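ARCHIVE ENTRY
Sequence with per-residue tokens
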Amino acid sequence: MSLQYIIDAYNLINHPRFRPEKDSINIQYSLANFVRFNKLSGSKNNEVVLVFDGYPPAGQEIPKEIGLTCVFSYTVEADELIKKIVENSACPGNIIVVSDDKEVRIMSGFLRARVSGVEEFICGRKNKKPACAKVSDSDDLKLTYSAMQKINAELKKKWLE
């Protein structure tokens, strides 16, 4: 049984472990190569859908290969498009939604799809060393992106309520 990874592309692009290719001016190709090169979707039989907000960039080629699709949300938000894809799926149990957006994760789980945060997707499950997307020593990241998000949420609750 193959899986379908539906990835909130801008969540992945904004993660500190994602490094666009130096020579690439096309972020879609850079992101597709990052996912494929680091084998983030596991088997090459698994399908990857990268969901971007807005319209495709004018004059740029969009990656097209077997098992990888770039989808643009056009007039709706990418989060809404992700929810719609899961909702319209005949077998949501074979879908893994990769997003740090709380609402997307809750709705996807409600629709019986599996969910993963971006940090977990890039680095693998707990107790497993990340075999991919290594950060160099000079980057000196002390907090993971997920930890920063949790701290920010807690501070907002305490200070803004």
Observations:
- Residues 145-160 form the longest helix (16 residues).
- The chain has one domain: 4-160.
